[in-house]
# Entry
Amino acid sequence: MPISVRNLKYVYNPGMPGETVALNDVSFDVADGTILGIIGHTGSGKSTLLQHLNGLIKPTSGEVYIDGECITDGKAKMTDIRRKVGLVFQYPEYQLFEETVSKDVAFGPKNLGCNEAEQEERVKKAISLVGLDYDEIKDCSPFELSGGMKRRVAIAGVIAMDPKILILDEPTAGLDPSAHREILAMVRRIHDEMGIILIFVSHNMADIAEMSDRVMVMSGGNIALEGTPAEVFSQGEKLAEMGLGVPPAKEIIDLIKDRNPGFVSEALSVDEAARDIKAYLEESDS
# Structure
């Protein structure tokens, strides 16, 4: 279910003193099965863009196509769009409201008209996908869970809608290192098992580099850079001009390259950097 965005423009408060162009002629495509990471400073247009992808915002001009269907021409049914495109806002645990985990996760399928048996099947599958035990957690109050578990339950509620595209806005924000790693592993598992397009926004460059097939950099309502993680993070100077950085492992690799011209590495993760440094030291000692 590919995504195609064409000449998307959005203006807040048009014609008013506070008029702001949030998106300016944005065009891009996302192929089936892709993990797209989006980075950019606050105010760069990231969140506004995400809300266009499931019809929460209507563009000032331009089109958004989901699986070939234009969702911005006023003809598409919003319920159908949001069934296909799941959007998880930052700190989704604040949106939990039911008395038990199973009821909270079942809320979406229930509103889609699923019968009780199908609701239960979807809830079990979604809870399993986020790495929780259905029998252990189904009758628990979501408000008594840890922060990381609450977030998993909130994401399970979106997964239970069986979306073909899943959008996550800062999925690891505010979590401790252990929960952070668990959420990343969960996101990867969801993508691999559901075979969906996954789009996520993060300020953590290491996460973007590790998880993404493609990276898009937003700045001033425009796409400033786009490409593979290696292509985007090789442009450190341009990123710095936008107030953005590169993954810590990339910083270390670049420092070593400056001092050792014979050292070759394009590592973006700690594990890759450690492997290349080890190989270089072993070769130097031989």
Summary: The first strand starts at residue 3 and ends at 12. Residues 247-286 form one domain. The chain has twelve helices and ten strands.
